Amino acid sequence: MRALIALLPGDGIGPEVIDEGARLLRAVAERSRHEFQLEKGAIGGTAIDATGTPLPDSTLALCRRADAVLLGAVGGPKWAPSAPVRPEQGLLALRKELGLFANLRPVTVHPRVASASPVKAELLADVDFVVVRELTGGIYFGEKTRTADSASDLCSYTADEVRRVVRVAARLAQKRRRRLTSVDKANVLETSRLWRDVTSQVVQDEFPDLQLEHVLVDSCAMLLVQRPSRFDVVVTENMFGDILTDEAAVLAGSIGLLPSASLGDGQKGVYEPIHGSAPDIAGKGIANPYGTLLSVAMLLRHSLGLAEEARAVERAVHVAIEQGVLTPDLSQKGATTREATDAVLTALQQER
Ligand code: NAD
Ligand code: IPM
Ligand code: MN
What we know:
The protein is α/β, with parallel strands linked by helices. It has 2 domains: about 1-100 and about 265-350, 3-Layer(aba) Sandwich (Isopropylmalate Dehydrogenase); about 120-250, Isopropylmalate Dehydrogenase (3-Layer(aba) Sandwich), CATH 3.40.718. It contains 12 helices and 12 strands. A 10-stranded mixed beta sheet has the order 2-1-3-12-11-4-5-10-8-9, sandwiched between helices. The chain has a two-stranded antiparallel sheet with strand order 6-7. Helix 1 runs parallel beside helix 12 and helix 6 (about 160-175) crosses helix 7 (about 190-205). The mean pLDDT is about 95. The structure holds nicotinamide-adenine-dinucleotide (NAD), 3-isopropylmalic acid and manganese (II) ion (MN). 3-isopropylmalic acid binds near residues 88, 91, 92, 242 and 274.
């Protein structure tokens, strides 16, 4: 098949992990005789420095033309949170412009690195869940006001916004263990009461085969470390999903391992590791590339319909971890970003 894939490296370790993602995409193309055209676009702080805006029109146009987008990370200390234009606005605008309302963040624990998690190994066996995070609504996108001594961020949701993301999560749960956990703060927030009502209705009307539970977000934060294997599919609003998935990354041993897919109504998606630009290790060549490489697998599966290739990539990453080829976030010896990717590419060649 032919596909146009936009590469948006961004800031910090973003370009380092995207270089590796590009190598993997080229290897997959060669292995399966696909033609992937890879085209780079600027986003985030580096785009601000070059053009004055974190999402230049040319980048958005590229992403609209592309079949899929692979993104590194945006942000960093160079671009202060108080500045009028910030790198993170580019990422938020991209998600909004492309209508990517559902962010899938799978969480699994590889036994080889379970000891890297502060959570007891016995609690990590059988951890396998997906957080479906609402991505284009809520407090991230509500009206913001600021005076010298007051500020407000509005959190609002419509029933339609809740319904469509719950459907994505419910369809996913049907293909898995049929357990859906909806996370909210319905004891305090009006948006959460709407969220809970709509979720119950959608599941009752359209997915009666699912086992649905509602969990309050504070309790969910506790259960994630206390009994993580109880979760199958978790659906939640934008900010809760952001926070809970960084917490969930602790189960996996490093945030550098977790991939994500941001999806809308069509096939197109933005794929990115869930970590940020990691300014503390940027430029050293030691960023963990596996979250990005697993995001490539999600890209192959969801946007290009290449399920076999996606599985081969996932198996190759698994083999590399099994062999102990681990960057310093997971191992004292510490492979480089490039060595870790090399191990995946070698394992991929042996997959047939
Ligand atoms: P971060 O995820 O960048 O880093 C947190 C910690 O995890 C750091 O110690 C870092 O070294 C480590 N880490 C992250 N990714 C790693 C990897 N691949 N390999 C090894 N270690 C890794 O979070 P932060 O420090 O809170 O944020 C830094 C900047 O990134 C901020 O400007 C933030 O806005 C931005 N950010 C961007 C995204 C994104 O682009 N999707 C996501 C989160 C944060
Ligand atoms: C993420 C990040 C972003 C978010 C930031 C950089 C805007 O934390 O992708 O998890 O909050 O969505
Ligand atoms: Mn985040």
